[in-house]
Amino acid sequence: MSSAPWSLHLLSEVLAAFTVESPTALRDVVSRVGEAVDAEVMAILTADDFVLCSGLTRQEKPALLAMAASGASELQLDGGQLHLFWAPLNDRERLVVGRYREAFSLEERALLRGMGRCIQLSTQVLAAVKAEQEALKAEQIAKEEAIREATCDHLTGLPNRRLLLAHLATRLAAPLAADRHTAVLFIDLDRFKQINDLYGHPAGDEVLRQVGQRLSSLVRGSDLVGRISGDEFVVVAEVREQADALTLAGRILEQLQLPLEVQGRALPSSGSIGIAIAEAGDDPETLMANADLAMYSVKQQGSGRFACFDASLREQLQERARIEEELRSGLAASEIRAWFQPILSAVHGTVIGFEALARWHHPQRGLLAPAAFIAIAEETGLLRELDAAVLQDACQQIGGWGDTFDGLLPRLSVNISATSLADPLLSLRVREALTSSAFPGDQLFLEITETTLVEDVASAFTNIAELKTLGIRLAIDDFGTGYSSLRYLRRFPVGILKIDRSFVDGLGHDQEDEVIVETVIRMARSLGVEVVAEGVETLNQEEILRRLGCHYLQGFLYGRPADGPTSAALYATSLAGMLGVGLPTS
Ligand code: C2E
Ligand code: MG
Ligand code: MG
After folding, report:
1. 174, 282, 486, 489: which sits with the fewest CB atoms below 10 Å from its CB?
2. Are 417 and 380 in contact (CB under 8 A)?
3. Is the distance from the beta carbon of residue 370 to the nearest atom of ligand 1 less than 6 Å?
4. Centroid of ligand 3 to alpha carbon of 448 (angstroms)
5. Does residue 483's CB lie within 6 angstroms of at least one atom of ligand 1?
6. What is the pLDDT along the chain (586 residues), one digit of tens a residue?
7. E strands of 317-457, at which residues?
8. Which residues have C-beta within 8 Å of that of residue 169, sequence separation ≥ 6?
9. Quick check: CB of 477 below 6 Å from ligand 1?
10. What one-character DSSP code corresponds to residue 226?
């Protein structure tokens, strides 16, 4: 047998077989080794088992396994005397080659040892290559995961703020065709917090996932949808002109307004969108911030719509931010004071009370009426503080009149916003205001608008019950302009209905207004509730209101809101029975 040529050939084959990853590679190589020496039995075994074996019956195998430890060179089997050759493959496995015919020659043994060593090396190399490949693969997966982690939003799988900004930067840097622009649509879901509060966070998460899917299905493949935080999504799209961006925003709003199917419920959904179109030199952050500002402006005007950014918007918002800051410091510096407008008895013409109205003594802009700051106070969460400040100041000022008027204090009406009514601290604040001013609770009315009462009835209930124990009554302000709230008239300690100025306006020339006013007065009387007519400006209106049985009158005809000292003087005049308002005095 000429061993040298085929052994080299076999060696290269062995190595080649092991460089590819195949479950049969080892078996093939081993059988080729067996063929080379005309072996009848070929096996690889560990101390207690076979890795592979050919040429032995199931009954014969244990006998060979028993020899593994000793490495004996012969084994007596039913088929005859089996000559064995053992070669270690690694520290666990051994190769065994068997032949019945004759023992292996020295040359064959050398060859087999060489091949065993060859297999051993090859398996080692293969194992190392495999380990290396696995390590590389794991590293690659970890890298991809880290990138995903850093650039994707877990919940929706959409790109996050970082990736969106990077994407925007690439887009802005690349030259676009003259008729192409990059648009950013900033989308904020309306009332998302309520969904979380009412149905729990899993439902909120599901809403976000579904919204993400809806948005993704609406845009072109080249556009990008991402979630940048909470309920805020961003779409980066390429458009020809602004109108395209508006059309896309319209389509998104339409889709968002379809109810979402979450946990077996159809949840209402809607969103607000701000749009910014890139201009030369814009950077990603500015573009995103501009779209955000446009979205914010939509929210301020009632949500559920879209708007485009323009420079005046930034000025408006900066102006608002300035007012907010000034309001905060103004509240701290007691620049917001209570002024008072008189309320008169329709029968006697005397001043029976005052409504406290907030006035801001602005250090630069002078005296400001509520229209200039109430809405901003509400948006910025300062309204509770403002209400509390006016309440405290009003009680303090009018409570201070006690000595002057021999304890004959007028009634006091103070406006309370929806958020104050739901404020758990309200009754405590009212109690403090009464205690510190010595103003009697049964002379105090809190004015709330009809809509307030309807919307916040549940959270307001506890407050109202506590206020009742202090003798405080409610006045329903601007009655007739909101939803019908007759139900609450019975449920809560409502002492006064204030007919809105818009109805009083029509008295004398609008038949319908007269019917409404008459009906309200009749109904209130039957419920034992008093009626104040707001915005009385003419003697004719006064005359009709008196005829219809209205209890009290308030309006410019009798006095505009004025500061404390002016109001005290008016009250003094009234008490002295000298008020010249054309009403009969008793
Ligand atoms: P309101 O509570 O309905 O107050 C009556 C408003 O009508 C006052 O406006 C008053 O000046 C005005 N008014 C009274 N008589 C006449 C009249 O004959 N003709 C006309 N054209 N107007 C008349 P003001 O002071 O500007 O207050 C506006 C609103 O701001 C108030 O309406 C009230 O809703 C709110 N407000 C005022 N102060 C406070 C406050 O301390 N807290 C809260 N939450 N809201 C307040
Ligand atoms: Mg009022
Ligand atoms: Mg009113």
Report:
1. 174
2. no
3. yes
4. 9
5. no
6. 444 444 545 555 555 555 555 556 777 778 888 888 899 999 999 988 998 899 999 999 999 999 888 888 999 998 899 999 998 887 888 889 999 989 999 888 888 887 777 777 767 766 776 777 888 899 999 888 888 778 888 899 999 999 999 999 999 988 777 778 999 999 999 888 888 878 889 999 999 999 999 999 999 988 999 999 999 999 999 999 999 999 999 999 999 999 999 988 888 889 999 999 998 888 999 999 999 999 988 988 877 899 999 888 888 878 888 999 999 999 999 999 999 999 999 999 999 999 999 999 999 999 999 999 998 898 888 999 999 999 999 999 999 998 899 889 999 999 999 888 888 889 999 999 999 999 999 999 999 886 665 455 666 788 888 999 999 999 988 887 765 455 566 667 889 999 999 999 999 998 888 988 998 898 888 878 899 999 999 999 999 999 999 999 999 999 999 999 999 999 999 998 754 444 443 3
7. 336-345, 351-362, 366-368, 411-415, 444-449
8. 283, 284
9. yes
10. E
* DSSP type of residue 177: P
Distance CA 389, CA 392 (A): 5
Supply 527's token pair.
Answer: 């419920």
421 CB near ligand 1 (under 6 Å):
no
Q: Which of 125, 81, 132 lies closest to 102, judged by CA? A: 81
Q: Is 152 helix (H, G, I), strand (E, B) or coil?
A: strand
Check residue 562 and report its DSSP letter: B
Statement: the pTM of the whole predicted model exceeds 0.70: no
d(CA 210, CA 105): 77
Round to whole Å and give the CA distance between 442 and 507.
32
Ligand 1 mutation target, pool 339, 341, 357, most atoms within 8 A of CB: 357
Q: How far apart are CA 174 and CA 176, in angstroms?
A: 6
Mutate which of 382, 384, 415, 500 for ligand 1? The one with the most ligand atoms within 8 Å of its CB, which is 415
441 CB neighbour count, 10 Å cutoff? 18
The tokens for 290 are: 């501009």
Angle at 413 between CA 410 and CA 415, to 5 degrees: 160
Handedness of CA 193, 196, 197, 198 (dihedral sign): positive
CA–CA dist 476, 389 (Å, integer): 21
Which is it for the CA torsion 77, 80, 81, 86, positive or negative?
Answer: negative
Nearest CA to ligand 1 atom 13: 535
Q: Which residues pair with 553 in a beta bridge?
A: 344, 533
Q: Is the CB of 353 under 6 A from ligand 1?
A: no
